[in-house]
């Protein structure tokens, strides 16, 4: 009886991890079903398993590099390959997932994968441990698919590429505009015609 219950619990756990959602492939195919985010057991790369129903016996697996966008009720993510996030730098990211915050004339994404600073500190037993701080980085996409990350040091210049920064920043605040206010700024810009 215990073995039977254990098997049932394992099966339910596996099924319950899948969330109802959609994915758009690189070929612009829209596929709906139950999505489960996982790592490929052979190469360790992230992928999404798509089940047409919760009892689908042959779910299809899609490597992240073959997906443009995926979403569930809660979140939507854009998958960007061969990404050069900052205009004047040679930083190259072969693959990144960006969480969509706002869609409109300008799409706003966020990630914690950029601008991390690494430092070392003593760990247990005299070993050195590496730590990394992660800050939010906002990323904008225009109507033509141009995507750039907004650099904290060049915020006004980067935002001006997409909108009249001074006009919209003044509408939000009379004090100096802060990086964390970018979502408000983009929502305001997307509302206006």
SSE topology:
Layout lengths: L1 H15 L2 E7 L4 E10 L6 E6 L8 E4 L3 E6 L3 E8 L9 E10 L4 E5 L5 E6 L5 E6 L3 E5 L5 E3 L5 H6 L4 H8 L9 H10 L2
Antiparallel strand pairs: 1-2, 1-5, 2-3, 3-4, 5-6, 6-7, 7-8, 8-11, 9-10, 11-12
Instruction: Give the uncertain stretches in residue-range form.
Output: 4-16, 117-121
* Strands in their spatial order, largest beta sheet: 4-3-2-1-5-6-7-8-11-12
β-strand amount: 35-45%
Measured on Cα atoms, how large is the radius of gyration? 21 Å
Treating each run of at least 4 consecutive H or I residues as one helix, how many helices? 4
Structural class: alpha+beta
C-alpha end-to-end distance: 65 Å
Rough outline: elongated
Could you characterize what this model shows?
There is one protein chain. The protein has about 190 residues and is an alpha+beta fold. Helix content is about 20%, strand content about 40%. The protein has 4 helices and 12 strands; from the N terminus they run αββββββββββββααα. A 10-stranded antiparallel β-sheet has the order 4-3-2-1-5-6-7-8-11-12. A two-stranded antiparallel sheet has the order 9-10. A hairpin with an 8-residue loop joins β3 and β4. The chain is elongated, with a radius of gyration of 21 Å. Residues about 5-15 and about 115-120 have low confidence and may be disordered.
